[in-house]
Amino acid sequence: MAGNRKNNGCRLTIFFGLLLVASAQALSDEQRSLTTLQPVVDQASAAVVRISVANQLSSGVVISDDGLILTVAHGFAYPDRTTTVHVPGSSADTSLSVKAEIVLKDSETDVVVLKIPRPEHGLTVMPIGPPVARHQQLIALGYPARTTSLPAAVPRFGTVVAGDDRLIRSTCRLTAGDSGGPVVDTAGRLVGLNQRIGTAHDANLHLTVATCRKALTKLPKPIPLPESPSVEPPVLGPPGPLPGMLGSLVRLTDVGGIQHEPSVKILGTLIAEDVVATKLSELRGRRQVVCRTANREAIEADLVWYDQTDDLAILRLKSKTTVEFTRPEATDVRPQAGDLVMSTAGPTLGMIGRSRFDEPAARAQLGCTIDAADGSLVVTQVFPKSAAADAGLQVHDVLKLLGDRPLAALNDVAQALRNTQPGDILAITFERSGHQLHASGQLTHSADTLLERSEFLDGHAGTLSHRRSGFRDVIQHDLPVNPAECGSPLFSSDGTLIGINIACRSREAVLAIPIERVLKLAQLLPHSAGEPGK
User: Fold this and answer.
1) DSSP per residue over 359-411, as a string?
2) Position 258 confidence tier, pLDDT thresholds 50, 70, 90
3) Is the pLDDT score of 475 beyond 90?
4) Predicted confidence (pLDDT) per residue in 402-422, tens digit
């Protein structure tokens, strides 16, 4: 036991050493902003646990080396059910799940204190910070419920909007499963607990440490909270969009939009003087568009390459642009959780929450019922707001092709949809009254997933991208990028182009494709074995 306490003391000493170094670097070089809070995020994440009660998921934070955990009370609607706590480790061998005892449940403050057995490898304890001020920068951490196999808590960056002695309101985007997780200052000290979300994206509420202390006074035996040294938290500020960053953004419109009001407006990213990357499904089957650059050029472009798995399209301009833009470079340096990011929308900083992971696939729906008769597939019903309705299918139409796959049996339909995702645009060939017709429709999500609370948060999630699943090796960040802004560039806080925003995945998560993969797809770099589909 003494050995474990000594080990935990070393962990705290190392943690504060990292904080002091990070703070000193920020204060000693005013001309350069910090580009990462990775050491702070890594250490803070080690003190964040996932809590499960009757299939209800929430988060919590370790506040003592003998196993006391703070969380919120509204995650304990079933106090008679078993409470399981997942404690992260440095590897799969050191992480574990244990049963927890409820030491205190205080409905007045919405605070719960849990007790778990101390694991052999010890616990990382989160130190307590001072009260926060308006506009102060914060990091919220938690385990989003929509992902059940997270190796570590996911950080979200933001600032204090308002607050009082009981609650803090911040721009740190929370979601289902985050409740009870910590919100920390940029020195990694606990300043509150995630409590709930509102309708607006800046309506993220956290209980203050003062509220937690009030609850702890109701315990039979006082708990000494781990105080932290007096460390001035780094204040992070990006330089704002640079000319090259602004030049990287292009607006895509229909070809007719040069003289007329365009009917499609999406964004893209310049990756060469005559090459643009954008989100494939937002092209809606168009093979020609007009690219409008920051210096008001209007240049026609053709679709020359695409990868449906990544929902990424490569366009080639018919003439080279003269705009100044940030030239992408392939690098072996991979973005990490805690790195700071920017967009062209303004000087707002965001944070990478997860790096280089696969977003799970979803099941796509065609949206019609089909009868198989005499080797033909006949449409018998078309559901509204479906790919079938989008393509204009009618009852009695005979399906011939989905994409490039011929259809002769019902299994052919399943096989044609096998490698697609909701949101993909699917070409449909069919016969009507003896005439062969061609159309396309946007595949939809299964109806039962549209009621999933961890996905849509009872209407608080906002508008999400239609195509938001099935991506490989992507980056997740928390910048305010809406679905119409996908295809736009993602920059590190020093102005380096690191990715292309590809999907607004959920309230707290935007997905981006790493720039080196975009360059390979655009054939600006040598391909590795196995070329992407086109």
Assistant:
1) PPP--EE--EEEEEETTEEEEEEE-TTSHHHHTT--TT-EEEEETTEE-SSHH
2) very low
3) yes
4) 999 999 999 999 999 999 999
Q: Does residue 144 contact residue 240 with C-beta atoms inside 8 Å? A: no
Tokens, residue 324: 């100044």
pLDDT at 31: 34
Residue closest to 230 by CA, chosen among 194, 164, 185: 185
Pairing status of strand 298-307 against strand 266-272: unpaired
pTM value is 0.88
**Mean predicted confidence (pLDDT) in 12-23:** 35
Torsion-angle region of 346 (φ positive above 0: left; ψ -120 to 50: alpha; else: beta):
left
Q: How confident is the model at residue 52, as a pLDDT?
A: 94
Neighbours of 532 (CB within 10 A): 15
Contact assessment for residue 382 and residue 367, using Cβ atoms and an 8 Å cutoff: yes
CA 206 vs CA 72, 130, 140, 488: distances in Å: 10, 15, 9, 31
CA distance readout (Å), 439 to 308, 334, 406: 18, 41, 15
What is the residue whose two structure tokens read 């490989």?
A: 472
* CA 291 remoteness from chain centre: 27
Structure tokens at 498: 């690191």
- The Cα 66–Cα 183 span in angstroms is 22
Residue 33: pLDDT band with limits 50, 70, 90: low
Q: Which residue in 462, 470, 474 sits closest to 508, CA to CA? A: 462
Q: Bridge-partner residues for 59, per DSSP?
A: 50
Q: What is the 3-state secondary structure (H, E, C) of 208-231?
A: EHHHHHHHHCCCCCCCCCCECCCC
CA distance 49 to 189: 16
- In whole angstroms, what is the distance from residue 393 CA to residue 389 CA? 6
Chain-centre distance for alpha carbon 77: 28
Judged by average pLDDT, the poorest of 166-170, 362-366, 443-447, 459-463 is: 459-463
